[in-house]
C-alpha cells in the first residue's frame, strides 16, 4: 500500500499512487526502478531481473550473470546453438581443436584437457577404458 512501503531503490517512503512490486518483498517508486548497470527504466514494458536485491535489464543480467562460452567468454543469446563438453558450454563456431583450429562437429571424437579441446588427430586414441 502506498505510504507504508519503502523503496528498494532510494530507501524513501513510497507515497505515490502507484508503486512497482518486483518480488514479494521488494517495492520501488515507479521512477526508481532502473537497471543497476545501465540505468534503463524498468517498467511494465520490459523484463526485469533481480540479483542480490538489485534490478537489471535482460541484456545486462545475461551479460553479467548468464552462462558464457568457455572459449570466447561471450554470453549466449536465446537463439544460439551450443556444444557441451562436461560442464563447459561453447558457441558452435568456438568448439574447435586448440592445437589445429579445426571446428569440431557433432559426432566428432575429441578430448578435453583442462580447458583445451583437442580433436582425435591431436590427442590420439583414448587410453584403455576411457571414453572420448
Explain what you see.
This protein has 132 residues and is mostly beta strands. It has two domains: 17-63, Cysteine Rich Protein (Ribbon), CATH 2.10.110.10; 66-131, Ribbon (Cysteine Rich Protein), CATH 2.10.110. 9% of the residues lie in helices and 25% in strands. It is built from two helices and eight strands. The strands form four sheets. A two-stranded antiparallel sheet has the order 1-2. A hairpin with a 2-residue loop joins strand 3 and strand 4 (54-57). The chain is rod-shaped. The N and C termini lie far apart (60 Å). One of its GO terms (molecular function) is DNA-binding transcription factor activity, RNA polymerase II-specific. This is ISL2 protein. Keywords: Developmental protein, LIM domain, Metal-binding, Zinc. Pfam families: LIM. Its main location: nucleus.
Question: How would you briefly describe this protein structure?
Answer:
Helices cover 9% and strands 25% of the residues. By secondary structure, the chain is mostly beta strands.
Key structural traits:
Znf_LIM, 2 helices, two-stranded antiparallel sheet, zinc, rod-shaped, ISL1/2-like_LIM1, metal-binding, mainly beta, 132 residues, Cysteine Rich Protein, cis-regulatory region sequence-specific DNA binding
Can you lay out the helices and strands and say which pair or pack?
Layout: E1 19-23, E2 26-29, E3 48-51, E4 54-57, H1 58-65, E5 82-85, E6 88-91, E7 110-113, E8 116-119, H2 120-123
Antiparallel strand pairs: 1-2, 3-4, 5-6, 7-8
Amino acid at each position: 500500500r502506498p505510504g507504508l512501503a519503502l523503496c528498494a531503490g532510494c530507501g524513501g517512503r513510497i507515497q505515490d499512487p502507484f508503486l512497482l512490486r518486483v518480488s514479494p518483498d521488494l517495492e520501488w517508486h515507479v521512477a526508481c526502478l532502473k537497471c543497476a548497470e545501465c540505468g534503463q527504466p524498468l517498467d511494465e514494458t520490459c523484463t526485469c531481473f533481480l540479483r542480490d536485491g538489485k534490478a537489471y535489464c535482460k541484456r545486462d543480467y545475461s551479460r553479467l550473470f548468464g552462462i558464457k562460452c568457455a572459449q570466447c567468454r561471450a554470453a549466449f543469446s536465446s537463439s544460439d546453438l551450443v556444444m557441451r563438453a562436461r560442464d563447459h558450454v561453447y558457441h558452435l563456431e568456438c568448439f574447435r581443436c586448440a592445437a589445429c583450429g579445426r571446428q569440431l562437429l557433432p559426432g566428432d571424437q575429441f578430448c578435453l584437457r583442462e580447458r583445451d579441446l583437442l580433436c582425435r588427430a591431436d590427442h590420439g586414441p583414448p587410453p584403455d577404458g576411457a571414453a572420448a
